[in-house]
C-alpha cells in the first residue's frame, strides 16, 4: 500500500490547489445541514458554488467527458475532496445526485434523458433526491409497495409513500423505485422512474429530527402521472437499476471514508485537550478505546483508498469501516455528553449537533445489523440468513401479510 501521490497525482493535486487558491474567496461558508437546509439564500449560494466547481473541473470528476465530467478515476475524486477540506470550503451541494443518481442515469438512462438531465444536475441548477425507502421497505428494499400502473397511452400513474428522502424539499427531480408487476417475485416487478418534484400529486413533508433540522422528508405520491419516457433502465428492471445506485452509494461512502475518520478524531482530540476531562481516569480509558478504533479506521480507510487507486470498487468489507466510524463517533458524542452534562445538548454548544444527529447514521447507507450480516456472509463466508420470500409472487406475500402471517 503506497500512500504517496504518483507524479501524475501530485500534478493533479497542484492543479486543483491552484484553482482553489484562485477561487476560494467566492465560496460560501461551510455550514451544517441544520443551518443550511432551510435557508434559501444559503442554498442558492451552494448551488452557484457547485456550478463554479463544475466549470473548474472539480465536480463530476469521475463522470465521462461527454457528459461534462473530467473522465478521471476515484482517486482524483479523493484528491479533490482532500483539497476542498484543506481549503476550508464546501464541496458540491448535490452529493446524492452527482455521486449516485447521475452515474445511474449514465449507466441506464436513454440518450434523451442523459442530454436533458445531466448538465443541470452537474451545475447544481437541478438538485435530485433518491426516493427508494418506504415505511415498510428499508433494509428490505425489494418490499417497496409504491404502485405504478400503466395506462392505455403508455404513461404510468404512481401512488404510494416514500420516507427518509434527503433533500426532497429543494429537489427538482426524484429517482423513484415503484412496483409495476405484483405477479412475479418481489425483486422482479419493480421499475425506476424520473419524477418531477413539482408534478401534480407530489406532496413533500419535512421530518424534523432531534438535532433540530429537517434534512429529510416523507413524500406522498397521489395519482401522479408520469410519461413512459421517464422510465430508467426498462420496465420491471428496477431492481437492477437500484443495485447500480446502491453500488455508487457504497463508492461515495468509500470516497468519504477518510473524512469520517478525521472528523471523529477531531472530536476526540478536542475532548482530550479539555483540562478537566483529561485528568479523569474513566474519561481517559474511554478516550483510549475510541482512539484505538479511530486508528484502526484510519488504516482501513487507507486500504479503501488504495483499492480505489487501483480502479477497484470497495467490496462488502468496507461496511466494517462504516460500522466502526459511526460507533466511534457516537461513543465520542456520549463521552462529551457525560463530561459536559446537560449543557452538551444546548443549541449553542458545538457538540449538540453531533450528539443528536450521529446516532441516525447507524441507519443511513445500510444499518449496522445488515452490514454485519453482509460481512458475515460475503467476507467471512458464514451461512446466509434464511429467506422465506424466495420465488413467491409479491401479491401472495402481501396476501399473507394481510392475514397476519410473517413474511
Ligand atoms: C440520515 C439518513 C438519510 C437517508 N436518506 C435516504 C434517502 O435520501 N433516500 C432513501 O431512499 N432512503 C434514505 N434513508 C433511509 C435508509 O436507507 C434506511 O434508513 C435504511 O435502509 C434502513 O431502513 P429502515 O430505516 O426502514 O429500518 P428497518 O429496515 O426497518 O430496520 C429496523 C431495524 O431492524 C434491523 N433489521 C432489519 N432487517 C434485519 C435483518 N434481516 N437482520 C437483522 N436485523 C435487521 C435493522 O438493522 C434496524 O436496526 C436515509 C436514512 C438516514 C438515517
Report on the structure:
By secondary structure, this protein is an alpha+beta fold. The protein folds into 3 domains: 7-93, Butyryl-Coa Dehydrogenase, subunit A, domain 1, CATH 1.10.540; 128-236, Beta Barrel (Butyryl-CoA Dehydrogenase, subunit A, domain 2); 256-366, Butyryl-CoA Dehydrogenase, subunit A, domain 3. It contains 14 helices and 8 strands. The chain has helices at 7-23, 33-36, 40-55, 74-87, 95-108, 111-122, 238-255, 257-272, 275-279, 281-309, 318-340, 352-357, 368-379, 394-402, and strands at 128-131, 147-150, 156-166, 173-179, 190-196, 202-207, 216-226, 231-232. The strands form 2 sheets. Strands 1-4-5-8 form a 4-stranded mixed sheet. A hairpin with a 5-residue loop joins strand 2 and strand 3 (156-166). Helix 5 packs antiparallel against helix 6 and helix 10 (281-309) runs antiparallel to helix 11. It starts with 6 loop residues before the first helix and ends in a 5-residue tail after the last helix. Mean pLDDT is 87; it is low at 400-407. It binds flavin-adenine dinucleotide (FAD). Residues 129-133, 138-139, 164-166, 216, 360, 363-364, 367, 369-370, 373, 385 line the site of flavin-adenine dinucleotide.
Amino acid at each position: 500500500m503506497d500512500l504517496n501521490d504518483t507524479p501524475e497525482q501530485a500534478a493533479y493535486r497542484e492543479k486543483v490547489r491552484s484553482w482553489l487558491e484562485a477561487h476560494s474567496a467566492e465560496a460560501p461558508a461551510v455550514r451544517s445541514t441544520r443551518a443550511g437546509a432551510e435557508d434559501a439564500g444559503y442554498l442558492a449560494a451552494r448551488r452557484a458554488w457547485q456550478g463554479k466547481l463544475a466549470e473548474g473541473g472539480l465536480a463530476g470528476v469521475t463522470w465521462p467527458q461527454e457528459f461534462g465530467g473530467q473522465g478521471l478515476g476515484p482517486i482524483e475524486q479523493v484528491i479533490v475532496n482532500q483539497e476542498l477540506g484543506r481549503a476550508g470550503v464546501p464541496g458540491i451541494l448535490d452529493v446524492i445526485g452527482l455521486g449516485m443518481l447521475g452515474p445511474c442515469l449514465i449507466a441506464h438512462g436513454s440518450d434523451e434523458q442523459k442530454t436533458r438531465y445531466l448538465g443541470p444536475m452537474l451545475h447544481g441548477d437541478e438538485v435530485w433526491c433518491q426516493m427508494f425507502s418506504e415505511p415498510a421497505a428499508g433494509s428490505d428494499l425489494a418490499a417497496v409497495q409504491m404502485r405504478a400502473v400503466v395506462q392505455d397511452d403508455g404513461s404510468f400513474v404512481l401512488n404510494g409513500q416514500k420516507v427518509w428522502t434527503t433533500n426532497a424539499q429543494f429537489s427538482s427531480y426524484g429517482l423513484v423505485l415503484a412496483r409495476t408487476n405484483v405477479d412475479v417475485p418481489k425483486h422482479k416487478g419493480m421499475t425506476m422512474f424520473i419524477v418531477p418534484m413539482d408534478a401534480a400529486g407530489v406532496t413533500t413533508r419535512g421530518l424534523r429530527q432531534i438535532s433540530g433540522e429537517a434534512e429529510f422528508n416523507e413524500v406522498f405520491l397521489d395519482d401522479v402521472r408520469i410519461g413512459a419516457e421517464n422510465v430508467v433502465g426498462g420496465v420491471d428492471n428496477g431492481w437492477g437499476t437500484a443495485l447500480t445506485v446502491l453500488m455508487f452509494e457504497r463508492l461515495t461512502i468509500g470516497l468519504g471514508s477518510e473524512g469520517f475518520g478525521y472528523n471523529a478524531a477531531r472530536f476526540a482530540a478536542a475532548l482530550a485537550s479539555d483540562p478537566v476531562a483529561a485528568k479523569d481516569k474513566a474519561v481517559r480509558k474511554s478516550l483510549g478505546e475510541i482512539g484505538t478504533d479511530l486508528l484502526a479506521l484510519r488504516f482501513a480507510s487507507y486500504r479503501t483508498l488504495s483499492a480505489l487507486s487501483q480502479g477497484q470498487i470497495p467490496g462488502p468489507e468496507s461496511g466494517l469501516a462504516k460500522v466502526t466510524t459511526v460507533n466511534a463517533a457516537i461513543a465520542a458524542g456520549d463521552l462529551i455528553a457525560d463530561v459536559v452534562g446537560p449543557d452538551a445538548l444546548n443549541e449553542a454548544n458545538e457538540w449538540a449537533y453531533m450528539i443528536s444527529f450521529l446516532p441516525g447514521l447507524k441507519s443511513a447507507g445500510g444499518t449496522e445489523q445488515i452490514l454485519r450480516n453482509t460481512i458475515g456472509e460475503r467476507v467471512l463466508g458464514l451461512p446466509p440468513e434464511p429467506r422465506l420470500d424466495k420465488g413467491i409472487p409479491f401479491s401472495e406475500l402481501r396476501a399473507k401479510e394481510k392475514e397476519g402471517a410473517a413474511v
